[in-house]
Amino acid sequence: MTLLKMKFNLKRILILFISLFVIGSVAIETSVHTVSGDSLHLKDYTNEITNLNEPYKFIKTDYFKPITHLTFTNKPVTRYYQLTLKKVKMSPDGFERTVWSVNGQHPGPLIQANKGDRLVINVTNHFDDPASIHWHGMFQHGTNWYDGVPGQTQCPIPNDVSLVYNFSTTDQHGTYWYHSHFFAQYVDGLRGSLVVHDPDDPYLNQYDFEYLVVLSDWHHNTTGVLLPLQDAPGYSGFRPIPDSPLISGLGRYNCTAAPPGSKCNSDQPLPVYNVKKNKKYRFRIINSAADGVFVFSIDQHKLKVIESEGIYLKPTIIKKLPVAVGQRYSVIVDANQPVGNYFIRGTLDKRCTPNNNATINFNSAIDWDGLGILHYEGAKNSPNSKEFDDDFTPCRDLDKKHLKPIKPITKYDGHVTDFVNITITFGADKNQRLEALINNSSFVPQLNDPTINKITRDIAAKDLPKDQNSVILNHNGGIAEIYVKNDNNADHPFHMHGHVFAIMFVGEKGDVPDESKYNKKNPVVRDTVTIPGNGFLVIRFITDNPGVWAFHCHIEWHVEIGMVMGIIELQDTLKKETIPEDVVALCLEHDLQKRTTRKMLNAIVINEIRSDD
Ligand SMILES: [Cu+2]
């Protein structure tokens, strides 16, 4: 379908929709949304698009050059970006395959803003599949419909259609990322970095340059091939084993293990980060993998941890940094060693990846030790540096002693208004297909009619379908507490949209939460946390952000079998909001309601084969 025709159809269907549901005023930009109290913190931040004619900037990012800082402005500004989604052939680890690229690269380009700036991002989908982008860690105060989650906050963007995401960074700052939230599409490449700079950053003067490190696991098969294998009746394996770890999109593979006829090159150069002797470098580290704990380290260089997921930390020194899927850290590295080349290690921790003979790609030729080089200017030797010993507990988050906020965050120590109890298990559906269960219910996204649409049509949260795994929170400014019992062996890195949360308690098997042990005075605050296998987690967060917010395991293979909840927060405020018409129109255009989720998956597989032919 041509773009023009698509536009025409959108318009026609939109008129139909207006007559059906009575939509409010027509406006491309989002206005400020009034919420009782001052919970949105929008004061002093930009809420208007200043110049609608501003061209969207199509950029590419060289991940091996330091970030060029944005100039801090007196007043917040609006920054325009173009992200074009297109499948391209690439060889990240030497093995050529189709990659779901952003602006022709993987990982996608860096989106940058300063604190308070507005981001206006035009996403143009030329994947031949539907798509979406979630801005991982951004609160989306007042713009829930730009959170990018098909089935919860929007319908997916059809092929050859653009959607403008438009949100303020309000008072957020730090290291974030973006990725598709449509099926497992991010695992095939749709992921990139997002950084919000802060003029008030207490560490701003403690480093000279800044680097980004985007870590990911990589599969030679697309998820269109892998997911149906995991979905087969009676599947008794674990999550698919990857083929290589990637450091900012680069890895290595032993091509003798590649299938005959594939294009593969074993002599991939290692990724190189250049440094100058006696300069200091901030490394922003993002685990954007489908699965798996990464351990980041640089031989002979210790790491000063200063940020986790937008929270400034009391600085502590570590040798190795474990990063679970979805988590981010900033560390400062002092290039104070003799001029030379040193290994950077982005190791996928094999100890945290279960395997058996039934597991997809169980006999992978993967080299778990992802390598890069820290290259001092003038260094000639080839690296032969020695790896540090472990100084962390494997398969667990970095110890809380390294995660103390720079000032204790005390607002979570108060009257809890809502208690939520959840139990995570695995089971099988009636066709013996593996399911993840939260309180005995496996989540299924309603791609054609997302929850936010239902709420704004005045459907009460309590009347949502059971498989939406809804958590209903109605106390404006209240404190919600979620108590999780993990009734299975696997560790699950859980991520919450629209919020950070305070970690009251993390318990191993048998270590039942006890309120007297809760960390109320100086809790770790972040947006992604690992729940130990057969263990426990208790978190608290402030219910001040009207919206439908996913709370889910970030292991993509678990998401796809239903390990997702929907937090329905302040529905009375949310239902009065007007979803922008271009967001609503996505639902009408694609008409996904005629297909079930599983069939939808098949459609993607077919599509993929067609485009690869
Ligand atoms: Cu999980």
Automatic annotation (TrEMBL):
Gene3D superfamilies reported for this sequence: Cupredoxins - blue copper proteins
InterPro entries (UniProt xref): Cu-oxidase-like_N, Cu-oxidase_2nd, Cu-oxidase_C, Cu-oxidase_fam, Cu_oxidase_CS, Cu_oxidase_Cu_BS, Cupredoxin
Every Plastocyanin-like domain range: 86-200, 210-354, 448-570
Superkingdom classification of source: Eukaryota
Transport in keyword set: no
Entry keywords, A to Z: Copper, Metal-binding, Oxidoreductase
GO MF annotation, one: oxidoreductase activity
Claim: Metal-binding is one of the keywords in the record: yes
Family listed: Belongs to the multicopper oxidase family.
Protein name, entry field: Multicopper oxidase
Organism in which the protein naturally occurs: Rhizophagus irregularis (strain DAOM 181602 / DAOM 197198 / MUCL 43194) (Arbuscular mycorrhizal fungus)
